[in-house]
Write a structure and sequence with these properties.
four-stranded antiparallel beta sheet, three-stranded antiparallel beta sheet, 2 domains, alpha+beta, single chain, Immunoglobulin-like
C-alpha cells in the first residue's frame, strides 16, 4: 500500500525536471550579452513593400554613402565617425543630413544612434553594422554598411 505513490511521484518529478531545465536554458540564452533580437521584426516584415519601395528610391537617386572612422585617443574610447554622400556621378552632396544606427555584431543589443559627424562610443573593435539614412529635402536614401572599427 505504501508503494502506490512512487510511480506518480517519479512521473511528476520528471515533468518538473523537464520544465526546470527548459526555464534554465531560456534564462541562459536570453542572459547572454551577444544574444539579440531585431526590434519590431514582425512590423518590418509586414512593411516589406515599403522597404522595397525605398530600395527603388535608393536606386533612382543613385547616391552612395562612405563612412570615415577615426579612432580618438585610447583614453576617451570615442571614434570619430563622418559620412560622405555622393551622387551617381561622384559629385559630393554637401547639404545631406546623415543619421546612423550602429551596433557591433558581437553585441547586437548595444546600439548607438547619432547624426553625423559625431564622436561615438564604439567600445568594441571588430565588425560593426551601420544603418545609414541620408536626407536632403524630400529625398531620403538608406544604406546598410559593414565596417571594421579600429
Amino acid at each position: 500500500m505504501k508503494r502506490d505513490w512512487i510511480w506518480p511521484a517519479i512521473v511528476v518529478g520528471l515533468l518538473v525536471l523537464g520544465v526546470g531545465a527548459n526555464v534554465l536554458l531560456m534564462l541562459y540564452a536570453t542572459g547572454d550579452p551577444s544574444f539579440a533580437v531585431e526590434p519590431d521584426y514582425y512590423a518590418k516584415a509586414l512593411a516589406w513593400d515599403d522597404h522595397m519601395a525605398q530600395e527603388r528610391r535608393n536606386a533612382d537617386l543613385g547616391w552612395t554613402i562612405a563612412l570615415d572612422l577615426a579612432s580618438g585617443p585610447a583614453s576617451t574610447g570615442l571614434v570619430g565617425v563622418a559620412a560622405t554622400v555622393t551622387d551617381r556621378q561622384g559629385a559630393l552632396i554637401e547639404d545631406a543630413t546623415v543619421s546612423i544606427e550602429a551596433f557591433s555584431y558581437a553585441r547586437g543589443n548595444e546600439k548607438v544612434t547619432a547624426v553625423l559627424p559625431a564622436d561615438l562610443p564604439l567600445p568594441r573593435k571588430g565588425l560593426w553594422e551601420f544603418r545609414c539614412t541620408a536626407r536632403r529635402g524630400e529625398d531620403v536614401f538608406t544604406a546598410v554598411l559593414r565596417e571594421d572599427v579600429p
